[in-house]
Amino acid sequence: VGKPERQVAVFGAGYIGLVTGACLAELGHRVVVRDIDPDKVALLRSGDVPIYEPGLGDMIVRNKERLTFTLDLEETLRGAEIAYVCVDTPPSASGDADLSRIWSVVKSLEGAAHLKAVVVKSTVPVGTGARVRSALDAAGLAHVGYAANPEFTAEGRAVADFMRPDRIVIGAADEAVAQLIADLHDGVDGPVVVMDVRSAEMVKLASNALLATKISFINEIATLCEKTGADVEEVARAVGLDHRLGPHFLRPGIGWGGSCFPKDSEALRQLASNTGYHLQLLSAVIEVNNLQKRRAIQKLKDELGTLAGMRVALLGLTFKPGTDDMREAPSTVLAGRLLAEGAEVSCWDPMARPGEVEPWVSTTRHATPEEAMAGADAVIVVTEWPQLKEVDWAKAAESMRRPVLFDGRNLLDPAGMRALGYTYMSVGRP
Ligand code: UGA
Fold this sequence. Notes:
Blueprint: E1 7-11, H1 15-26, E2 30-34, H2 38-45, H3 56-62, E3 67-70, H4 73-77, E4 82-85, H5 100-108, E5 117-120, H6 128-138, E6 145-148, H7 158-163, E7 168-172, H8 175-184, E8 192-195, H9 197-228, H10 232-240, H11 261-274, H12 280-304, E9 311-315, H13 330-340, E10 344-348, H14 359-364, E11 365-366, H15 369-373, E12 378-381, H16 393-399, E13 404-407, H17 414-419, E14 423-426
Parallel strand pairs: 1-2, 1-4, 2-3, 4-5, 5-6, 7-8, 9-10, 9-12, 10-11, 12-13, 13-14
Antiparallel strand pairs: 6-7
Helix pairs in contact: 1-3, 9-11, 9-12, 12-13
């Protein structure tokens, strides 16, 4: 017998709010998603989805009886038992997470005395839950429970990650509240782990930091492989077979980006320094990630003598394949450096959304990788889009002014590319 169907208010129709709202509706709950952006709400109401996420659009359509979108606060809270806070927490100038959107949601809950629980899903500094708790108490909502329920969904597989997670982490001071949130996930295939609020907040930040650490670690080993003649792909494969280490997040490359790792690692570092402790390891992890892009530019510079006046093609712009997300994408850092060095940039990406991407993209974007490469002095594979496997690399080499190729994702075969005439460089491979 399934657990009771709940009425849920979701605040924020970004990646997390939409995935949470759609999946909770899929589980049988009644969900109202509120956002303050009229265009976004209008789009969602017309049956469109403002982001690319496999399975999400279908799920929203399939559950339209139970899932509504609104700008209206009263409509959102009417009958709501659980309020899910899914707003974004961008970095502020100081490096601390900017929690203003959280506070405006909490403020809007004043008077919602019928709520049973407020749940924060947004990624927040440890201690935020305690502050929300105090704010609820001060607003006359002392009887309303509080829980932290961080998300571990990766873009491009968020729906699957929600429905079949490695774990559901619930931080709550009150057992009944923890049970309420656990029951809400009835039908989700994954273990529930209950703990105190601060620990749950920390799990999220620690998980992302460790994932970023694995990547920076293998990237540093890759650099050493280049200097010693070892092949990092062989090394990573065999290291990953140790079950204590695992094969995941050991893909060397041009560095991690996206909406989470850069922001969350900075936020964790800032959180630590606010307590008076300097996180040694994480600082190095961030530094190695920055270095990875500088090294790519340096390699091209060494090869071409100068970047001034050179045309460099960037293949792939989004921070990883399978998403249209450009946030903190390595491509933007690379393009910025190239332009600053006086190079010209041409680019290709199958999904980065026109209009929302950096201004340089709109002037130099081409419909195919081959077009972006024609006449270029060098090309960088920035994002490992599967389409790049289909490129006629022989023909593309002929169309370039100089066939210099930096494969920032170790996507292509070194011997094969050299046989086609490329000056081929990759990450940590001889
Ligand atoms: C990440 C985490 O994987 C999720 O668990 C987490 O919930 C999410 O952040 C979040 O905090 O919301 P996401 O940013 O979507 O998810 O992307 P990932 O697939 O983790 O990739 C992050 C970056 O690392 C990408 O730039 C990717 O290219 C890079 N990466 C990943 C590597 O360079 N090597 C690897 O082996 C794996």
